[in-house]
Amino acid sequence: MLSILLSIPQTVIFNFRYLPFTQALKLPVWIHYRCKVKIEGHIECESSKLADIRIGFHTVSHLYRPVTSLMVSRGARLVFKGSAHIGRGSSLLVYPSAVMELGTDFTISAASTLKCYKKIAVGDNVLCSWDILIMDSDTHSIVYSDGQENNDKPIIISDHVWIGCNSVILKGAEIPENCVIGAGSVVSGKYFEKNSIIAGNPAKTIKNILSWRK
Length: 214
What we know:
This protein is mainly β. The protein contains two helices and 22 strands. It is globular.
């Protein structure tokens, strides 16, 4: 309760600074008072429900990373298509001219990082555990012997996906609907089966499933 009360000033400032006035009145985005916010680009929020998007509140008992970061660079866009729950110690970082789209019912339990240099598109009902890295760039330039470069590539995560702890989702990855990414996996490809468990380094489809539940 105390953290909610302490977070009211930053929450009010955020909503009225970055959202349309009539939407801001509903306070759909709640920001923890320890959250570091740097918005130079554009925030879009399709929800007008009170506290439908919560950033920096939930944590995991064995992790202690108190600071949550939200950065949208100049010319970049961060789009919340519905409810979202970003756990404490996580980072949403959208670099110049990039677009990050998060579907409704998007959840990060804690201490995970999404770094977007081109495009990261996440579907509905996606659950991310802790210590996950999702990054659509190598962040450093490599020129191969044939003259080609390691360009940034979009990441696409479809509806109803659960990403296990300590996983890494790299540029060009495409995860189909109704999949579970096993803990500690490194996903960089796109030729996976929907309705499956994807695991390993490099990740591959290892078992078909009917569904999974939170």
